[in-house]
Amino acid sequence: MKRRYAIVGVGGIGGYYGGRLAQSGQEVHFLCRSDYQYIKNHGLKVESVKGDFHLTQVNAYNDAKQMPPCDVILVCTKTLSNHQLKEILPSLVHQDSLVILVQNGLGMEQTLAQALPDIKIAGATAFICSFKVGQGHIRHAEYGELSLSPYHACVADSLKQVALDLQQAGIPTQYVDDLNYLRWKKLVWNIPYNGLTVLMNASTDKLTFDADSRPLLQDLMREVIEAAAACGATIPFDFIDKMIASTEKMTPYSPSMKLDYEASRPMEIDTMYTCPILTARAAGYEMKKTAVLEQQLRFKEKYRL
Asked: What's the CA gap between 68 and 137, in Å, rounded?
């Protein structure tokens, strides 16, 4: 059965995954921001290590109310704009629609469920190096794996069907039963690398190979794993070595938080740092090193030093 997809946010994540789905023959509708008119006129161009492509005809919109109701809505915006979902999603969904938050951090699904209690929700994490280089122009440099997990148990079967669609579009996709585990697992990489690339003004390779910063990365990863355990998510400590090894192989990269900082945009401190710290504290664990990062990042964001 063909599903109708909506992509909310056509940046490095939404542009790449939505583009791949459209290229594979799925019906995809894109909710754009600043480059709506450009994409409407010129299409969407994706440069990718998996093969370049150009979608010349794109279902592009700048108003969610003009879009048709869709079966699957992939939210690929930063969590900073999630307060807008209360206005965006109602016109996009029907009774059986599935909303998937392809975002970094913790607690977003709960917040959305409180705001829109009738919507069926899942979460997703992307392990990918992909970014927007211009209007309607995405560059996918490395990786691309997507992991999906249900927030509401009733969406498990339909989420597995979405995973098949993504796999058929050439996107390595896995289904994970436990969303709490999935979110904490992604934080093992995100908390050290996003924060430290900003605070030390360094790319991932410098942090990984330097004799002083590498132990700090490992200590932060260990703290995230201990916090996850306190919150009911068991992640083996050898995952630290796997994350370091995969980053060693990665092309030197600036994570999303560093790109946001350099562009004088707000950073995702609340969902990537504050919420995990508070969640772990409520479970009886103090993320002391992560809390220091959070304080430093808030200072940097305030004064742009």
From this structure: 25
Residue entry with tokens 């909506």: 6
86 is catalytic: no
Provide the whole-model pTM. 0.96
Exposure string for 71-88, b = 16+ CB within 10 A, e = fewer: bbbbbbbbbbebeebeeb
Coil, helix or strand at residue 80: helix
pLDDT tens, position by position, 208-231: 999 999 999 999 999 999 999 999
Residue 1 above 80 pLDDT? no
Instruction: Give residue 239's pLDDT.
Output: 98
What is the crossing angle of helices 288-303 and 213-230, to 10°?
Answer: 110
Contact by Cβ (8 Å): 107, 180:
no
In three-state secondary structure terms, 7 is strand
Mean pLDDT of the chain: 97
Active-site hit among 45, 120, 186, 258:
186
% of the chain exceeding 70 in pLDDT:
100
pLDDT at residue 122, rounded to an integer = 99
Other CB atoms within 10 Å distance of the CB of residue 132? 18
Q: What does the buried/exposed string (b/e) look like for 195-205 if buried means 16 or more CB atoms within 10 Å of the residue's CB?
A: bbbbbeebbbe
Considering the segment(s) 181-303 as one domain, its CATH architecture is Orthogonal Bundle (1.10)
Q: Does domain 4-177 have CATH number 3.50.50.60?
A: no
